[in-house]
Each structure stands twice: as structure tokens, then as C-alpha cells.
Prior knowledge:
Blueprint: E1 4-8, E2 11-20, H1 24-32, H2 34-37, E3 43-44, E4 52-57, E5 61-71, E6 75-85, E7 98-106, E8 109-117, H3 126-147
Antiparallel strand pairs: 1-2, 2-8, 3-4, 4-5, 5-6, 6-7, 7-8
Amino acid sequence: MKVATRKVPNEESFTTAFLVDQSPKEVFDAVNNVRGWWSSSLQGESEKLGDVFTFRYEDIHVSKQELIEVVPEKRVVWRVLDASLNFAEDKDEWKGTKVVFDIAKKGGKTELRFTHEGLVPAFECFDACSEGWGFFIDRSLKKLITTGKGEPA
């Protein structure tokens, strides 16, 4: 798993990126197919501006996201409206953070850069959440993009 961080004002947020042979449109479509890579039991819609959806993993993690920016073939941003991470003392650490997918051509390939803005090392959930995102982005989403089948929860 490749994990890197990038600087944002006064903090570091979790970031990971990979290159694929597929087009920016194919990457964009896969990102918006959240049921195909994050959770097949997602509640709500997750494809267009203003859509709101809820992710639930057993009684461990529940979060509600809203699509606040959608630029076809370039960018998707979710704002976490609410969250309950039952394995952390501060259960709403994700609340108010942003999940960003940046898509760009790099030579003959397409780069997907994922950043969870506000998911910082000071958070109790940083290690577990970074590991989870590493799986869902670097493995499940990448497989959805490259093979047409992800590994959603």
C-alpha cells in the first residue's frame, strides 16, 4: 500500500494516488460508482452534485456524505455531514472533513489522487482509517477501474 501525505494549512491529510491506463472518463465513472468499490449496501445516491449517501459498516462506522463538487473527468468532492466511528473516543472525527478525488492525464495514463482532507495524524482513527482507505482506494477502486469489478464492503 502506497501512502503519502500532502500539506494543507497547518495539518497533513491522508493522500494516496495511482496511475491507470483507463481514460479520465472511465476513472470518473468508477469513482462515482461508490457501491462498486466502497459498499454495496450504500444508502442514497452518489453520482451528481447535491447527492447525499450513507456508508455503514456493521456498528463500527456510519458516515453521511454530500457531493459538493463534481467536475466530469476531473474532480469529485464529498463533504462528511455526519459520522460515528464507534472505535474512537471522539466518534465524530470525520464530521466536516472532505473526501477529494482528483483525476488528471499524466502522459499516456490517468492519475487518480485521493485525499481525505482533515483526516490528520492527530486523529485517533488516523491509522485505522488510513489503512481502510488504502484498501478501498488502492485496491478496490483501482480494481474496479482496471477490471470492472471492485471489492466493496
